[in-house]
């Protein structure tokens, strides 16, 4: 219930405005968000690199309502790739299609994504398209496949909580697309998504077993020790080398586990979000773990 309420609140612009304008909330957002400026995200990525990890930078924003805002987001992504190359940081970039105008026009959005991917390829880098709510799943896959047919420096994300994901994985593998597998962070109905954690987890493991032996380089995004153990088991059984896939985790979440995996010789990528539009991302992180809400309430009311 708490998860549903927080995910519903994450869509409220009014609540967002109140939260974002509150200095104490802004400070607390740093638990999950590297900062509001690109330089802060680059500094966090450098720290990850120094600790033996890769990074993926995400300029926060979603559901823009004007082409000017979408173009601004595109320019920000181009700047990220420039700075990553200039500062020799080992990082790629993650983006959301609704930040790039998907709600306005799929063709317009595709043009912006293609320009970013061509730029990424020019700096020998890679763009990952995050997966948003299920209303966007098919449109995201279609766009990624179309852009990928022109420039392969693009991949996307599959959410294990959706019933359709097994078919989507097969579809994306036929074109050699690199996939990040996650459980899924949005509010979905029982018509499209597994409701029980045990079913989501079982589907996650099923998809890991399809992805790892596929011959393409994928990202296994989770902080769940059981999913990580299942991945390691699957890789050992299938004789898949530690270089042929990576674990991915969120900035500020289970840093102990991130370090342990690095120590054990696994590739680990930290997803580092930054920007002024941090509210929906922050709310999804609270929704994932009730203990996070307690932590924030305690800190908020502390004098
Ligand atoms: C790199 C990365 C990229 C992602 N991209 C997407 C995407 O494109 N689309 C999408 O829908 N979702 C995305 N997600 C979010 C994902 O779908 C899950 O909501 C999130 O990762 C929690 O699931 P879990 O696998 O960690 O397992 P869970 O079963 O939710 O959690 C397992 C354990 O991890 C820890 N944990 C998990 N979340 C938190 C948290 N917020 N704070 C503190 N501890 C936590 C807790 O110890 C928990 O017991 C991404 C996640 C990662 C790691």
Provide keyphrases for this structure.
13 helices; 303 residues; globular; eight-stranded parallel β-barrel; alpha/beta; binds flavin-adenine dinucleotide; 8 strands; 14% strand
Please explain how this structure is put together.
The chain has 303 residues and is of the alpha/beta class. Helix 6 links the parallel strand 2 and strand 3. The mean pLDDT is 94. The chain is built from 13 helices and 8 strands. It binds flavin-adenine dinucleotide. Flavin-adenine dinucleotide binds at residues 130-131, 157, 159, 182-186, 221-224, 227, 248-250, 253-254, 271, 285, 288-289, 292. Flavin-adenine dinucleotide is lined by residues 130-131, 157, 159, 182-186, 221-224, 227, 248-250, 253-254, 271, 285, 288-289, 292.
Task: Explain briefly what this protein structure is.
With 303 residues, the chain is of the alpha/beta class. The protein contains 13 helices and 8 strands. The protein binds flavin-adenine dinucleotide (FAD).
- Major sheet characteristics: 8 strands, parallel, barrel
Structural class: alpha/beta
- Average pLDDT, to the nearest integer? 94
The distinct bound ligands, ions and cofactors come out as: flavin-adenine dinucleotide
Distance between the termini: 29 Å
Oligomer: single chain
Distinct helical segment count? 13
How much β-strand is present in the residues? Answer: 5-15%
Which residues form runs of ≥5 with pLDDT under 50?
none
Measured as a percent range, the helix fraction is: 40-55%
* Cα gyration radius (Å): 18 Å
The strand order across the widest sheet is 1-2-3-4-5-6-7-8
**Topology pattern, helix = H, strand = E:** HHHHEHEHEHEHEHEHEHEHH
């Amino acid at each position: 219930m708490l998860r549903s309420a927080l995910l519903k609140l994450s869509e409220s612009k009014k609540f967002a405005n109140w939260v974002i304008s509150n200095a104490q909330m802004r400070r607390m957002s740093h638990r999950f968000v590297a900062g509001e400026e690109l330089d802060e995200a680059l500094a966090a990525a450098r720290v990850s690199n120094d600790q033996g990890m890769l990074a993926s930078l995400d300029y926060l924003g979603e559901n823009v309502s004007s082409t000017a805002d979408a173009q601004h987001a595109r320019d920000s992504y181009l700047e990220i790739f420039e700075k990553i190359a200039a500062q020799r940081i080992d990082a790629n970039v993650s983006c959301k299609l609704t930040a790039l105008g998907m709600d306005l026009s799929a063709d317009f959005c595709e043009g912006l994504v293609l320009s970013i991917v061509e730029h990424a390829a020019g700096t020998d880098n890679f763009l990952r398209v995050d997966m948003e709510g299920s209303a966007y799943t098919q449109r995201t896959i279609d766009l990624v496949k179309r852009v990928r047919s022109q420039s392969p420096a693009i991949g996307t994300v599959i959410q294990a909580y959706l019933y359709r994901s097994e078919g989507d994985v097969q579809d994306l593998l036929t074109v050699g697309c690199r996939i990040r597998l996650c459980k899924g962070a949005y509010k979905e109905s029982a018509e499209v998504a597994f409701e029980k954690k045990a079913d989501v987890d079982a589907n996650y493991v099923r998809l890991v077993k399809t992805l790892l032996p596929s011959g393409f380089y994928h990202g296994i995004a989770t902080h769940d020790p059981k999913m990580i153990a299942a991945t390691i088991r699957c890789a050992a059984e299938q004789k898949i080398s530690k270089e042929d896939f990576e674990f991915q985790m969120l900035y500020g979440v289970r840093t102990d586990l991130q370090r342990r995996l690095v120590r054990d010789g696994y590739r680990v990528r930290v997803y580092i979000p930054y920007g002024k539009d941090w509210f929906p991302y922050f709310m999804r992180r609270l929704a994932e773990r009730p203990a996070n809400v307690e932590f924030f309430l305690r800190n908020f009311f502390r004098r």
